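Example protein
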Amino acid sequence: MSPLNTDGALRWAVRESFLRYVTVIARGTVETDGVDTDATGRFVFPLRARRLTDDGWHLSFSGSVRFTAHNGFLDVLIAAPEVIVSASGGVLATHVAEDPQSLLPLLEIAPIEPETRADGLHWDAVPTLLRDDAVTHFGSVYASGAEMAPLSITAALLHS
């Protein structure tokens, strides 16, 4: 585990049952590239960019996590996640391996405003639900609307 990005990060454990299935039951692997894990086992994607738009905060993260099992039959990639979040809700999407410019929406994010602290913006333990678009991405194991792990985001404020 290397030092965590202090500029900001997305912390997300995906889903406990999914991790247990991949690593214990299916004896698969979890490979990370540019992603750390924190003390609670959440994946920590470093913040790459942030901007406030009319739709809310658009946050871009770097790194990837790949879950593989069953000799590659199960292959789930979460790469360079993008988050758009506002008081009316949000979405977490991943870049797609076949077309890195395309985004696949994975999660609906509960409506929440960030907490402003001295070190920046914080969204803590935000509930998430699996989107219909992502059911097959996770091997059709979870139904649309299934609860996924909550996510937390930090983003340092930029000063001009």
About this structure: Helices lie at 16-25. Residues 37 and 43 are 5 Å apart (CA to CA). The chain has a mean pLDDT of 92. The two ends are 32 Å apart (CA to CA).
